[in-house]
Amino acid sequence: MGLSTHVLDTMHGTPAVGMGVTLFTTQGSALLQLKAFVLNQDGRNPDGLLLDAASLKRGSYRLVFDVAGYFKGLGVALPEPNFLTLVSLDFGVAEPEKHYHVPLLVSPWSYSTYRGS
User: Fold this and answer.
1) Are 22 and 38 in contact (CB under 8 A)?
2) Domains of the chain by range and CATH?
3) Helix or strand or coil: residue 9?
4) Cystine design at 66: which of 8, 20, 37, 56 (Cβ 3.0–4.6 Å)?
């Protein structure tokens, strides 16, 4: 079914429109960038799935979200250095035939994630 993500700005109660996101595959400490994109009006990848069913493989992945850049772009006054700059989520795909949805709920001071549907 593929891989998707969605980001909600919990400070403002809105989708994180304009946040930069990068997807990597990981092998130990080695990273291979697969995709970089900016979230659309719904807080999602404008191209839909990050990886379709044929491209999603068993293995380890990392999503990196530019949290500080996003909130600075909104004019939120942040301390220097920022508490959160980049949020990296490392996750594994054990059953690539299933859908993997990796949402992020984020503010300048906290975040949470889970495996969604």
Assistant:
1) no
2) 2-113 (2.60.40.180)
3) strand
4) 20
